[in-house]
Amino acid sequence: MAPVAPDGIRGAKLMGLLSRAELEAQGFAALGDDVRISDKASIYGAKRIHLGDHVRIDDFCVLSAGTGGIEIGSHVHVAIYSSLIGAGRIVLHDFCNLSSRVSIYSSSDDYSGAFMTNPMVPTEYTGVTSASVILEKHVIIGCGSVVLPGVRLAAGVAVGALSLVTRDCEAFGIYAGQPARRIKERRRDLLDLEARLMS
Predict the structure, then answer these.
(1) What's the pLDDT tens digit per position in 33-63?
(2) Which of 22, 71, 120, 138 has the smallest CB count inside 10 Å?
């Protein structure tokens, strides 16, 4: 009998998800329960990637863990075409949600012209900078947004679609624009819902 997926569909392969055996074969640093990764996602540096429980990573996502690694908590969704890339550390705490085509970079080339760019140039000629990117609990990022190295999004931050996040965002703010600016306060009802879910 084929395994039953959490949503009742028999056979993970019918849904385009990697099986548990395939996930374990990737060699993740940590692999929680109920991890659903599309067989169309690309994973690089799995030994530096920690995955919590109830994690979903959709089609055509790219997780490329550099020396800093990638840490994904529990109850996290990374939607189609999103990417987490760079040498710095990238952390998505519990209940984070990345909408489609979100890009998180923990490394960036120097665009000033003082250095050459791109990974096919020897490092002594480039000026790549790397810094951690931290998304605290309940952060949601709208589609097409970009988060640059060295940014911390405090708990409950919401980022509107097509935004460019270049600096830290304070807790429970709604941010939007290029560069993203705080435009209003986000409600905190979700904290009560979290407490009910976890009880």
Answers:
(1) 999 999 999 999 999 999 999 999 999 999 9
(2) 120
